[in-house]
Design a protein that fits this description.
The chain is mainly α. The chain has 14 helices and five strands. 55% of the residues lie in helices and 7% in strands. Bound molecules: adenosine-5'-tetraphosphate.
C-alpha cells in the first residue's frame, strides 16, 4: 500500500499541521511505503516571496525530520523537482470540469482571502493535487478534514480517467483521524488554524519560542461559562482541550476529570506546559539538522520519486494516445 501526503511551504507550520497530518504520518511510515512532499508548486498559487519560499521549503523538510519522519523508510522530496506533477496535471485538467472546480470550498475561501489574485493556478489547484496523488499510485492520503473534498475529487478524476482510457490509476482514499482532524484558530475557534492566517495569534507555530507560545495561549479566545469540558457548544475550550488531550496522550474523560475543578487560567497554564514539552525537543532536533544533510535527503527522495512518476506517466501517455518519442 502506498501513502502520499504533502504540506505547502506557504508559512509557519503549526500544531494543526502536526496533529492533522504529520503525527499520523509517523505511524504510517512503519506500515506502508510513504511519500511525503513539500508542495511548492501549490504554494505559489498565492503570492510568495521567492527567498522566503526557498527558506520555508528547507524548513519544512527539517520539521519532517525533527518530528521523526525517517528518510530511510520514506521518500521526502520537493514537488518542483519532479516535472511529471505538472505534466500529469495538464492531462487531468482536460477531464476536470469548471463546474466541479467552482464548487471547491478551498477555492472559494482562498478567492475571498486573495481577491486581487484569483489566478488560474488557484482555480486548478485540486487538479495538481490529484496529479500529485495519482502519479504515485497512492492508496491512502492522510490529511486533515479540510482536504476531504479534494481527495474525493481526486478519486472521481481517477475513476473518470480509468473509465475512458482503461485501468491506469489506483483510486485513493483520504485517511482522516477523527480526533484533531480540524484544529481551530486560537483567535477564532470557528475557523481552522491556518498558516496563512493574518494574525500570528491564530496558530501555535512549531518553531515558536516559549514566550510566543505562552502569549498565544494566554490570549486564546475562550467561551462564556467556566467549565472545562468537551462540549460542542463551547468551541474554543473544545479546541484547546483537543490539543491538550492529543499532546498528553490521554482520553477525553481523563482530561475532563483532571480539570474538573480548574478555571480557564489554570487550564491554560497546563496547556502551555504540555505544548512546550512537546515543542522543545522537536525544536532542539530541528536546530541541529544541517542544510547539507537535508539537500542530500531531498536529492535521494527526488531520485526515488522520479522512478515511480516516470512509470505512471509512460502509461498515461500511451493510454491517451500520445506518440512515444524515439
Ligand atoms: N487546522 C488544521 N487542523 C488539522 N489539520 C490541518 N491541516 C492544515 N490545517 C489543519 C492539514 O495539514 C496538512 C498541510 O496543510 P496545508 O499545507 O494546506 O496547510 P494549512 O495550514 O491548511 O495552510 P493554509 O494557511 O490554510 O493555506 P495555505 O498554506 O494553502 O496558504 C494537510 O493535510 C491539512 O489537511
Amino acid at each position: 500500500m502506498r501513502v502520499f501526503s504533502a504540506i505547502l511551504p506557504s508559512g509557519n507550520l503549526h500544531i494543526g499541521n502536526y496533529i492533522g497530518a504529520i503525527k499520523n504520518w509517523l505511524e504510517l511510515q512503519n506500515q506502508y511505503q510513504c511519500i511525503f512532499s513539500i508542495a511548492n508548486y501549490h504554494a505559489i498559487t498565492v503570492k510568495q516571496d521567492p527567498e522566503i519560499l526557498r527558506q520555508k521549503s528547507l524548513e519544512i523538510a527539517k520539521i519532517y525530520l525533527a518530528a521523526g519522519i525517517d528518510p530511510k523508510k520514506v521518500i521526502i522530496f520537493i514537488q518542483s523537482h519532479i516535472n511529471e506533477h505538472t505534466e500529469l496535471a495538464w492531462i487531468l485538467g482536460t477531464l476536470a470540469t469548471i463546474s466541479e472546480l467552482k464548487r471547491m470550498t478551498q477555492f472559494k475561501e482562498k478567492s475571498e482571502q486573495h481577491k486581487k489574485n484569483v489566478n488560474l493556478g488557484l482555480f486548478s489547484y485540486p487538479v495538481l493535487q490529484a496529479a500529485d496523488i495519482l502519479l504515485y499510485q497512492t492508496e491512502i492520503v492522510p490529511v486533515g478534514e479540510d482536504q476531504k473534498q479534494h481527495i474525493e475529487f481526486t478519486a472521481d478524476l481517477a475513476k473518470k480517467f480509468n473509465k475512458l482510457f482503461g485501468e491506469t490509476f489506483i483510486i485513493p482514499k483520504a485517511l482522516i483521524k477523527e480526533e484533531g482532524c480540524r484544529i481551530m484558530g486560537l483567535d477564532n475557534p470557528l475557523k481552522k488554524m491556518s498558516k496563512s492566517a493574518k494574525s500570528p495569534l491564530n496558530y501555535l507555530g512549531l518553531l515558536d519560542t516559549s514566550e510566543e507560545i505562552r502569549k498565544k495561549i494566554s490570549k486564546a479566545v475562550t467561551d462564556s461559562g467556566a467549565e472545562i469540558k468537551f462540549s460542542k457548544d463551547k468551541p474554543a475550550i473544545f479546541n484547546l482541550l483537543t490539543i491538550y488531550q492529543i499532546l498528553s496522550f490521554q482520553s477525553k474523560k481523563e482530561v475532563e476529570e483532571k480539570f474538573k475543578n480548574s478555571n480557564y487560567a489554570d487550564f491554560k497554564k497546563e496547556l502551555t506546559k504540555i505544548v512546550l514539552e512537546f515543542l522543545e525537543p522537536l525544536q532542539e532536533r530541528f536546530y541541529k539538522i544541517k542544510d547539507k544533510e537535508v539537500y542530500e535527503i531531498l536529492q535521494d527522495g527526488a531520485n526515488k520519486a522520479q522512478g515511480i512518476a516516470r512509470e505512471t506517466m509512460k502509461k498515461v501517455k500511451e493510454r491517451v494516445g500520445f506518440l512515444t518519442s524515439l
